[in-house]
Amino acid sequence: MQVPVSSRFFRRVALLAAGFALSAPAWALDMGQLMQNMGQYKERTGRFVETKHMKVLDKPLRSTGEVRYVAPQLFEKKTVEPTAELLRVDGDALRVERGGKTYNVRLSSQPQAAAFVDVIVGLLTGDAGKLERSYDYELKGTAKKWTLAMVPKDVKMKSIISKVVASGDREQVRTIEYQQADGDRSVMVIEPLDKR
């Protein structure tokens, strides 16, 4: 036996469906929103713990230190333990200080080095162009909890890094994992960054 259904019932179902359709995008996060959230601060500082997993070693290598970003283009990663090292990016200039020696590189002349740097600098500055220059990406999640998977566009870079996965919440980057083509990987966990 078929039960008659009123037109009011159909209107209710249609309104519910429309409500779900309209509210779903509010839960999702797009790249523009993420970059806007990330780029709203002039300065950020925080601490990191980086763990490198290498097949040739019995146990992972662990390093700790501080990260700092000052708008529009200064980024520093200062390793404190186990040995002191400073990696400083100021626009196109990359400077590395390690073991009493200093190395200076123009990122525009070293696309592979630039691709490494583009991940963290692009995220902290909210510059999607930096990320898109070097990577194809897929963003998943919501503003509260997001994951950004990036695959290098450059063939030479792909032979070194197969994938980079960054995750975070709102405007905070929490982890960045570099997965190397040879199976090794490094994971940087960043404590909440102070923002100004």
TrEMBL record:
- Which Pfam families does the entry link to? LolA_3
Q: Which UniProt keywords apply?
A: Signal
Signal peptide (residue range) = 1-28
| Matching InterPro entries | LolA/LolB/LppX, OM_lipoprot_carrier_LolA-like
* Superkingdom of the source species: Bacteria
Q: What Gene3D superfamilies would the database entry show?
A: Lipoprotein localisation LolA/LolB/LppX
Q: What is this protein called?
A: Outer membrane lipoprotein-sorting protein
